[in-house]
């Protein structure tokens, strides 16, 4: 499809706001939608991904004590790093994973998690290396293929990234997380309409989780359709959390002087 050049340029200018928004969502109370670990809280029996901020802080404290007793316990260290990440303690999370990668230099899941921690900290080239080392050519993992593509996207290599997303979709057809990542690839280029198409496919696919639907809300909001974005977000979060996220999105667009441009461009294309 043809992309409006002005819209594309505006989209690129607001990419910084998009990244900042994703970080802010954790502070607004939905960090649980950012990373789904599947790990189980020993205290509550609930998945870490479903915990409130207060529960995450308590879990970080509990796992921190267990980690201190035995930092080479792979499962504890990975859970601890994940909870730290969800609490916004990116540097500390990376430090835990860096040490674990030294202790387990050939462990596939450790390398994969280390790569994601590096990417979250903005260390993209080392992240790419770690994810590629975690991959096994004779038995490739679609999650690692998608993770590698996401890192390439952040490095500005969108063509390579999308080729890998398609490869991942060949391996796992209809996987919502891949479709969502592919949508975010188009966000990074400012093609918000195409991004929304992929996000909607992702949100309607079996197995779509909160992260996928929050990404859809984000893309809808970036196009200035705040009421619709709020409705999507409200399905996943409490009304207070949803309002906070949409309010932050509005403020980020205003800071980037992008809201009026998006509104005018939408008017001109209708």
Automatic annotation (TrEMBL):
PROSITE patterns xrefs: PROKAR_LIPOPROTEIN (PS51257)
Pfam families for the chain: TPR_16
Protease keyword on record: no
InterPro entries found in the cross-reference section: TMTC_O-mannosyltransferase, TPR-like_helical_dom_sf, UCP035836
Signal peptide positions on this chain: 1-28
Organism classification: Bacteria, Pseudomonadati, Pseudomonadota, Alphaproteobacteria, Hyphomicrobiales
Keywords: Signal
Name recorded for this polypeptide: Tetratricopeptide repeat protein
Keyword Cell membrane annotated: no
SUPFAM superfamilies named in the record: TPR-like
């Amino acid at each position: 499809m043809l992309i409006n050049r002005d819209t594309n340029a505006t989209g690129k200018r607001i990419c910084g706001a998009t990244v900042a928004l994703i970080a802010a969502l954790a502070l607004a109370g939905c960090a649980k939608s950012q990373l789904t670990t599947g790990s189980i809280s020993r205290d509550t029996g609930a998945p870490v991904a479903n915990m409130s901020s207060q529960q995450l802080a308590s879990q970080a404290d509990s796992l921190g004590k267990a980690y201190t007793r035995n930092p080479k316990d792979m499962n504890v260290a990975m859970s601890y790093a994940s909870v730290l990440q969800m609490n916004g303690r990116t540097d500390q999370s990376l430090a835990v994973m860096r040490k674990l990668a030294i202790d387990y230099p050939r462990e596939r899941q450790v390398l994969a998690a280390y790569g994601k921690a590096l990417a979250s900290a903005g260390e993209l080239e080392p992240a790419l290396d770690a994810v590629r080392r975690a991959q096994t050519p004779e038995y490739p993992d679609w999650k690692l293929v998608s993770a590698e593509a996401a890192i390439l996207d952040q490095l500005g290599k969108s063509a390579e990234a999308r080729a890998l997303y398609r490869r991942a979709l060949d391996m796992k057809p209809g996987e919502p997380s891949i479709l969502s990542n592919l949508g975010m690839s188009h966000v990074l280029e400012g093609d918000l309409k195409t991004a929304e198409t992929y996000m909607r496919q992702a949100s309607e696919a079996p197995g779509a989780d909160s992260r996928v639907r929050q990404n859809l809300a984000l893309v809808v909001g970036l196009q200035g359709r705040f009421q619709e974005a709020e409705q999507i977000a409200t399905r996943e979060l409490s009304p207070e959390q949803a309002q906070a996220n949409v309010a932050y999105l509005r403020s980020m667009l205003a800071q980037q002087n992008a809201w009026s441009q998006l509104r005018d461009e939408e008017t001109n294309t209708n």
